[in-house]
Design goal:
alpha/beta; nine-stranded mixed β-sheet; six-stranded mixed β-sheet; 20 strands
């Protein structure tokens, strides 16, 4: 996507104008431009391409009430003809314009030829182009991983992605695969993934100075979710290639952390499985003893995400990180509560939660804190085990899922859990229908403010 951004000073002038300043701007323009805008019935809203005397494009203006929005150029990159456009703006506007321009040009074209020529945005700041390239790659990495069909994005493929990332930035990756998960005491990861010919695994990436503050990311890597023996209906299964969206989020966030050389000791844990149906699939009513030692009764095999996460969170807790953050496409209940475009999160640390919220507002990547309402923990109870993997009622389902996960995190650790959609259901500026990154820019902004001093 960053091939759509250039550092330089040459190109057709492009001006982004605040709607309430358009009239004043127009009065200062030469009569030819004023006549063109009048004759084309330009209303002072949206895009106008202004020709020169020879018919070539002399100038482009875009009038919007949201000149400082991170998505300001998300549509116009697809509306302008291929050419180079030089943005005249202040530094803050250049940053958001570059970000939205590059993401607006995103296309997932792995399986379909895309020979469209896109316009390029020219910015007189090599630093902004470089910083934007890192951020855009992190977001597009999430999108590409989520958009890739499950046949090409199974646990072994996720491992390849993490190995490539580690190789690029000097990190290390280890894997615990198949029955070795049992030998090394990751029973729930093995249980959920054992019915698939694509072997389950725990992928573990580390990077950075071992003496730096420890930040651990955990991502749900259910590469396809049939629902298991509690089989999903066809409509519910259609988009389940995106059920590894949590893993995609932490991989994209890890890229941004490493590319920015943030002074932290990073660890990324991805329990990667396919929840398939076979003779050895786990069953409703089974009881499993988890890595932490808690026993869990399986109420529904379609609540598998929290099962693979609980062993990974227990492993992460053993290292006592300064921050432990997980991402997961975990519950439909969160989508009902907040819709598909606003990710909810839970945290046992008020200061961190406030920091995430403030950071999200700053970079226009909003996140919404939800309550870890302790009385609902009773709803995760079982008559024959310490916990059940589903609540006794569908009400408050996102909360009971988060409370289940919290039971596997050491109480002294600052832990936050993001329940994300990982998918755009509708087209928005810079955000096409398909895989999407929610909350990773907010989290990175917080991490940068906290550690990069």
């Amino acid at each position: 996507m960053t091939q759509h951004l250039l550092s330089g000073t040459e190109g057709i002038p492009l001006s982004i104008i605040a709607a309430d300043e358009f009239t004043a701007w127009l009065e200062q323009q030469p009569s030819a431009q004023q006549t063109w805008l009048t004759n084309t019935k330009f209303s002072g809203k949206g895009l106008s391409v202004i020709p020169g005397p020879d018919g070539s494009i002399a100038q482009v203006i875009y009038v919007t009430p949201e000149v400082d929005s991170y998505w300001v150029c998300g549509d116009i990159v697809n509306e302008l003809p291929a050419n180079q456009y030089r943005l005249d703006a202040n530094e803050a506007q250049m940053k958001v314009a570059a970000f939205s321009w590059a993401l607006g040009a995103y296309k997932f074209d792995r399986y379909k030829a895309n020979d469209k020529q896109y316009p390029q945005l020219v910015i007189n700041s090599p630093q902004i182009v470089e910083q934007t390239a890192k951020l855009v790659r992190s977001v597009t990495m999430v999108r590409d991983l989520v958009n890739t069909p499950a046949a090409d994005m199974m646990p072994q493929h996720l491992a390849e992605q993490m190995e490539a990332l580690a190789d690029e930035f000097g990190g290390q990756v280890t894997q615990i695969v198949g029955d070795e998960l049992i030998a090394q005491n990751y029973p729930t990861i093995h249980m959920v993934g054992r019915a698939s010919e694509n072997l389950p695994r725990l992928i573990d990436l580390t990077w950075g100075d071992e003496n730096a503050p420890k930040v651990t990311l955990v991502g749900k890597g259910v590469c396809f979710d049939s629902g298991g023996l509690d089989l999903k209906p066809g409509a519910g299964m259609r988009l389940m290639k995106k059920d590894m969206g949590g893993a995609a989020h932490v991989i994209g966030l890890a890229h941004q952390i490493m590319a920015s050389n943030l002074p932290v000791r990073l660890r990324v844990l991805v329990p990667a499985v396919e929840n398939a149906v076979s003779a050895n699939a786990f069953r409703p009513g089974d009881v499993i003893t988890t890595r932490k030692g808690l026993t869990v009764e399986i109420d529904n095999t379609d609540a598998e995400g929290r099962l693979v996460l609980c062993d990974a969170l227990a492993e992460a807790s053993d290292e006592n990180p300064e921050l432990l953050i997980d991402f997961a496409t975990l519950t439909g209940a969160m989508r009902i509560a907040l819709g598909t475009e606003l990710p909810g999160f839970f945290s046992n640390d008020d200061d961190v939660a406030l920091g995430f919220t403030a950071a999200g507002l700053k970079v226009e990547d909003p996140v919404w804190r939800m309550p870890l309402h302790k009385p609902y923990m009773e709803l995760t109870g079982s008559d024959i085990a310490d916990l059940a993997n589903c609540g006794k009622t569908p009400f408050g389902g996102a909360i009971t899922a988060a409370l289940y996960l919290e039971a596997f995190v050491d109480k002294k650790i600052s832990w936050s859990h993001f329940d994300v959609m990982a998918w755009n259901n509708r087209k928005l500026p810079g955000r096409p229908v398909g895989g999407e990154a929610f909350g990773i820019r907010a989290v990175f902004e917080y991490l940068q403010q906290r550690f990069d001093k």
